[in-house]
Design a protein that fits this description.
The chain is built from two helices and 21 strands. By secondary structure, it is mainly β.
């Protein structure tokens, strides 16, 4: 979810800000913003998304994604949310999820529009199925925080488990861009909490990272350029860079360092699909798919989830087939 440098600019980022203030809106069960990595459990595909308490979405037989539960109820938010981010009111952003050692780890953003007084929290649980007797989430506290004096914004976490077992979290929005820290795979917390995060990418409007490995073994960093949350006026687009290390440096096809404004465009607005963003990759049925949200130009700019086939070229760059 986007955060601007000024509160005035942030006001325009509120979801569906183009609608008349105070106008009544019908509930939109298909609204999806900032989808996490998609996970499968017992044949059901689910992801978490931005919303009150964090929404859990489940794929339906007809391909739609509908809400199934919440990570937190409004009256059950951890106390540290209000202590570290006093202006947050339970609207939690841009989660990601990974399964490790028999439990699920959900990382999520606690913030306020227009400020980098933010925190990334962690909740752990044994199941993604709300009907299971094991459903329930433990608060593990804040992984990283940021405040006015920092040059990063602690939101938009994305988790990456490397083949050697090392666990990383990329994050960041505006300010000085995208950063990475290493996590402890046993606890899910930072491995070196005293170390400053490492910068991976910068652009004037940048956020929503996602780190993965290409089939040739190279590391690929997805980022968003542009602004979200403006419905059909959103300017989000997805760009990438490659590196031989998870901590960079990442460069685009032309050799430009992503820390210096580099980034190869792979997906932008097309037809009704406006402002694609917040990417992750789903591997299933023998193929790969780029999971993301977009603003539907045929439905008043409402945010929806979408999956597009993803392949890799001979040089190890992702290729997204953006067809109607």
């Amino acid at each position: 979810m986007i955060v601007f440098r000024t509160a005035l600019a942030a006001l325009a980022c509120l979801p569906f800000a183009t609608q008349t203030a105070g106008a009544q809106r019908r509930p939109d069960p298909e609204k999806v913003h900032d989808p996490s990595t998609v996970l499968e459990q017992d044949g059901a595909y689910r992801f978490f998304a931005t919303g009150g308490g964090i929404s859990l979405m489940r794929e339906q037989a007809d391909g739609r994604w509908l809400p199934e539960a919440r990570l937190f109820e409004r009256d059950g938010l951890p106390a540290w949310h209000g202590e570290k981010v006093p202006d947050n009111r339970g609207h939690l952003w841009a989660p990601d999820v990974i399964q490790l050692a028999g439990r699920y780890l959900v990382y999520y953003s606690v913030s306020t529009f227009g400020k980098n007084t933010s925190a990334i929290g962690l909740a752990t649980g044994k199941t993604l199925d709300p009907e299971s007797p094991e459903w329930g989430w433990n608060d593990e506290g804040a992984i990283i925080t940021s405040s006015r004096g920092d040059r990063f914004n602690a939101i938009d976490p994305a988790i990456f488990l490397d083949q050697d077992g090392r666990l990383y979290m990329t994050f960041g929005s505006f300010w000085d861009g995208i950063f990475i820290v290493e996590l402890d795979p046993e606890t899910g917390l930072r491995r070196h909490p005293g170390r400053a995060p490492t910068q991976l990418a910068y652009a004037p409007e940048i956020e929503a990272p996602f780190l993965t490995r290409a089939p040739d073994g190279g590391y690929v960093l997805f980022v968003n350029w542009g602004r979200c949350c403006r419905g059909t006026e959103s300017t989000y687009e997805i760009r990438v860079g490659r590196s031989d290390k998870p901590t960079g440096p990442f460069r685009d096809r032309d050799g430009r360092d992503l820390r210096e404004g580099g980034g190869t465009l792979i997906l932008e607005s097309h037809g009704r699909y406006i402002g694609p963003g917040h990417a992750s990759i789903l591997r299933r049925e023998g193929g790969e798919y780029l999971v993301h949200h977009f603003y539907d130009g045929d439905n008043r700019g409402r945010s929806r989830a979408r999956m597009l086939p993803l392949t890799w070229d001979n040089a190890g760059w992702p290729v997204v087939r953006d067809g109607e």
